[in-house]
DNA sequence: ACCGCCGGGTGCC
DNA sequence: ACCGCCGGGTGCC
């Protein structure tokens, strides 16, 4: 009865339930363990295993594992073991159990030592890890090397507490592990997915029910996905040695085949057709490698109702080492709300019209919660939010009660935080096969990967301890082998191609040509005068800061001055009346008000401000008293790491958590001021209108994107568009999902009366935004970050684009806009230098950089 | 015989 | 466990 998979799950479960530290009996008969405890245990493990960040090694100690003869768990030389407190043990409440990777109990820690360890473990003063270096063949007890890890501030307490009970931690020869912040290793991780691009062998034709012919690289992906689902290849780091299976990283071995991972990560760049490939997978690879049996309607070629590729049970020769539930039919797709409609469209588009595929949208208050109904569908689509809401409300969440054939996570990086409700809900779904679709599987650090691997049930790393010990901590500390292992791991389960990848020397997708041209705009006399006035004012302000040596403290002001110049280049009415400099603030309330105002200025302009800690666009923006903008979590991390002596990473001023200021929620952009005044034009507006009118006269079917970082500029542009009778829509970040979807659908429509222009805010919409109806892009103002512009252009220059794409960038001659790209590069250098060291002699060079940046 | 010594039973927590 | 420890049997050499 003990089939390999099953017993594996149960050992695993036993291990997990001990983690849960619940009152569950550790010695439960294996057969009684149900999936309910398993899921509880997974949740417990995810929340209880602390993040290994900033842990240092306190010391090591040779201990003894006793009672070996009572348990079945064996260990190999060099194997890692887990130490689990067992407060419910009837013989000793200090008991510490020793278990191997699969959770098979090996023995206990000797009583006296256990008493000393129990204090340290129960008070979470240290995490204790064990490795057995020798004596693995012993009958009664064996030595174990114990390593104590924890926060620096607990080191002395732990060392002394152990010493009091007669155990001396050996601290000699341990190099103190430095605390790393995640951004320092960002580059190493950026390269993690390199080298995954080589084409994996073979290609596979999709089932007949797929209407769209697959491109070569999509056939390759399909082939890879099918083999990941069907073949019994060993997971990474497992080898067969004799009749045992051996894990080369943990040195664990087992008689049973390690549970295979049926699925993986499809990490292709967006636009390569992850959605189509997944639809093809669903239709092509049902049980035993046969296509999904679907009904064909009677309509075309007097075809009878037939089962397209009905599956038989006999052709099991190649696979089925492990039995599977052949009655499972349904694929569950979970995606962010923003791409829900895209999935529905794509099913519509890519499945043959005469095929009856049951796709159910599990969404909205009227959703059908019947398990029987849901599990009879071919596909159920829902969102992360619906899934986690169901999960939270009741234990009887219908989606959690079904054994899915396959679960697909679209934009899978959504679950990178293991503590999020969403992630917990996703991890507990029951499925035979699991897939993650993501263009960006790693966003900031290796930590992002754990939930993904846990979802895939990649043994043994789905248990946080093994992940932390074997992969995350070594990688975070820059250990080469650690990074290498991480890469190997990822490589085995991931397929990633980028738009620039090639197959047989040919690009994966051939997109229509893209032409980028810069159109210089000359300011008229009045505009030029106003611009020069502002420029001189800014120059003198910055000159003063340079003289005072306070440039870095007034960093936000420097940016604000640049901002005003950029606004001048677009339209005079963009300039908000921003008064004052920071120095004049009299009261704390006033200072706060000023800071809020500055922050708002930086944010509302859509200037794509980057956080200097994570180097990404700021999320949850806060401003420091020295007026630098960061993500709240990033700067909070810096402050907590530096413990009371925290300094601003950009200007080294003292900063405190309590002094971080954010924009009050009710602050929304005030549109009324622009409408109050009488509308006027500008040189840039004229330049745009000239182009639009010319295009319209050439070809009425051409559609355009008009892009700006300033949403107020978009508002200004509405007036002349209306005047000339253009039909247009607008998409910006403030719009609800529903409105957005409507706007996109209208714009993408090829109907004769559909809008021909979309006013688009540069940062609006996620990466998935598909605007292929447009073939002309007008970038009204240059962005700090050229990548942002590229992304924006890619929204129409992507798979599905039929026309040649023409991009026009408007740049005002003799203005700050001409320097934007150079400034961007300088800014990046500046940030790097700021983080390079806290050394003061670097300060001068940074000020020089700013001077150069402003051509002073 | 309130000890020492012998040898069998026994053995995690 | 080819140990240590316990506790019963035993007792000059």
From TrEMBL:
- Name residues in a coiled coil: none
Q: Does the keyword RNA-binding apply?
A: no
Q: Which CDD domains match?
A: DEXHc_HLTF1_SMARC3, RING-HC_HLTF, SF2_C_SNF
Is Metal-binding among this UniProt entry's keywords?
Answer: yes
UniProt keywords (A-Z) are: ATP-binding, Helicase, Hydrolase, Metal-binding, Nucleotide-binding, Nucleus, Zinc, Zinc-finger
The protein's matches in Gene3D superfamilies, at most eight in alphabetical order, are given as: 3.30.70.2330, P-loop containing nucleotide triphosphate hydrolases, Tandem AAA-ATPase domain, Zinc/RING finger domain, C3HC4 (zinc finger)
Subcellular localization: Nucleus
Q: What is this protein called?
A: Helicase-like transcription factor
Q: Give the originating organism.
A: Sphaeramia orbicularis (orbiculate cardinalfish)
Q: State which gene encodes it.
A: hltf
């Amino acid at each position: 009865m003990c089939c390999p998979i099953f017993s594996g799950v149960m050992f695993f479960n036993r291990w997990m339930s001990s983690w849960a530290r619940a009152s569950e009996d550790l010695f439960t008969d294996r057969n009684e363990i149900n999936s309910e405890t398993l899921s509880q245990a997974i949740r417990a493990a995810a929340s209880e295993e602390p993040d290994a960040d900033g842990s240092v090694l306190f010391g090591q100690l040779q201990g003894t594992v006793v009672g070996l003869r009572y348990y079945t768990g064996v260990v190999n030389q060099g194997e890692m073991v887990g130490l689990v407190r067992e407060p419910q043990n009837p013989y000793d409440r200090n008991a510490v159990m020793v278990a191997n990777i699969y959770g098979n109990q090996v023995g206990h820690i000797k009583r006296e030592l256990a008493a000393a360890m129990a204090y340290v473990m129960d008070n979470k003063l240290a995490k204790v890890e064990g490795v057995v270096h020798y004596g693995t063949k012993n009958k009664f007890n064996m030595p174990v090397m114990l390593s104590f890890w924890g926060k620096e501030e607990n080191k002395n307490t732990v060392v002394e507490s152990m010493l009091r009970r007669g155990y001396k931690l050996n601290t000699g020869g341990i190099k103190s592990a430095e605390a790393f912040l995640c951004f320092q290793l960002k580059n190493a991780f950026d390269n993690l997915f390199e080298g995954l691009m080589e084409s994996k062998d073979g290609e596979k034709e999709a089932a007949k029910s797929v209407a769209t012919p697959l491109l070569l690289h999509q056939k390759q992906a399909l082939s890879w996905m099918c083999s990941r689902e069907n073949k019994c290849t060993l997971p990474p780091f497992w080898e067969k040695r004799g009749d045992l299976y051996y894990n080369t990283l943990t040195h664990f071995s087992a008689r049973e085949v390690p549970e295979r991972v049926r699925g993986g990560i499809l990490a292709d760049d967006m636009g390569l057709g992850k959605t189509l490939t997944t639809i093809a997978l669903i239709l092509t690879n049902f049980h035993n490698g046969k296509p999904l049996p679907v009904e064909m309607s009677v309509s075309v070629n007097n075809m009878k109702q037939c089962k397209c590729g009905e599956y038989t049970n006999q052709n099991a020769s190649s696979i089925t080492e492990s039995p599977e539930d052949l009655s499972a039919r349904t694929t569950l797709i979970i995606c962010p709300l923003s791409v829900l409609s895209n999935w529905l469209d794509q099913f519509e588009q890519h499945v043959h019209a005469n095929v009856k595929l049951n796709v159910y949208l599990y969404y909205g208050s009227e959703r059908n919660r019947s398990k029987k109904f849901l599990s009879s569908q071919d596909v159920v689509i829902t969102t992360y939010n619906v899934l986690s809401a169901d999960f939270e409300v009741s234990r009887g969440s219908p989606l959690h009660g079904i054994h899915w054939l396959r679960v697909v996570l679209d934009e899978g990086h959504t679950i990178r935080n293991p503590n999020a409700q969403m992630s917990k809900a996703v991890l507990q779904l029951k499925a035979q096969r699991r897939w993650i679709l993501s263009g960006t599987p790693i966003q900031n650090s290796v930590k992002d990967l754990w939930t993904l691997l846990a979802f895939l049930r990649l043994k043994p790393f789905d248990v946080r301890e093994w992940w932390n010990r074997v992969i995350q901590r070594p990688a975070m500390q820059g250990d080469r082998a650690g990074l290498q292992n991480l890469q190997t791991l990822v490589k085995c389960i991931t397929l990633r191609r980028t738009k620039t990848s090639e197959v047989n020397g040919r690009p994966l997708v051939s997109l229509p040509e893209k032409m980028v041209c810069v159109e210089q705009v000359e300011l008229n006399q009045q505009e030029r005068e106003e611009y020069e006035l502002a420029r001189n004012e800014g120059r003198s302000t910055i000159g003063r800061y340079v003289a005072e040596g306070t440039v870095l403290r007034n960093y936000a002001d420097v940016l604000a001055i640049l901002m005003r110049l950029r606004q001048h280049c677009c339209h005079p009415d963009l300039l908000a009346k921003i008064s004052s400099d920071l120095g004049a603030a009299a009261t704390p309330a006033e200072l706060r008000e000023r800071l809020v105002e500055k922050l708002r200025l930086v944010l509302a302009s859509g200037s794509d401000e980057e956080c200097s800690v994570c180097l990404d666009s700021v999320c949850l923006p806060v401003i420091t008293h020295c007026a630098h903008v960061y993500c709240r979590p990033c700067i909070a991390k810096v402050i907590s790491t530096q413990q009371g002596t925290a300094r601003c990473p950009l200007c080294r001023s003292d900063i405190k958590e309590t002094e971080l200021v954010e924009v009050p929620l009710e602050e929304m952009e005030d549109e009324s001021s622009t409408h109050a005044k009488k509308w006027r034009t500008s040189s840039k507006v004229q330049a745009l209108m000239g182009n639009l009118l010319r295009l319209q006269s050439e070809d009425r079917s051409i559609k355009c994107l008009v892009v700006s970082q300033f949403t107020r500029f978009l508002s200004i542009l509405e007036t002349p568009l209306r005047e000339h009778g253009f039909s247009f829509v607008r998409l910006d970040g403030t719009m609800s999902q529903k409105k957005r979807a409507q706007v996109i659908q209208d714009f993408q429509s090829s109907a004769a009366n559909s809008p021909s222009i979309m006013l688009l805010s540069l940062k609006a919409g996620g990466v998935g935004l598909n605007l292929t109806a447009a073939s002309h892009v007008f970038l009204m103002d240059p962005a700090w970050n050229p990548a942002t512009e590229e992304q924006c252009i890619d929204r129409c220059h992507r798979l599905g684009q039929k026309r040649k794409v023409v991009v026009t960038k408007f740049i005002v001659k003799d203005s700050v806009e001409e320097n934007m790209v150079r400034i961007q590069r300088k800014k990046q250098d500046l940030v790097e230098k700021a983080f390079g060291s806290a050394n003061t002699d670097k300060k001068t060079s940074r000020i020089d950089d700013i001077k150069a940046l402003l051509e002073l």
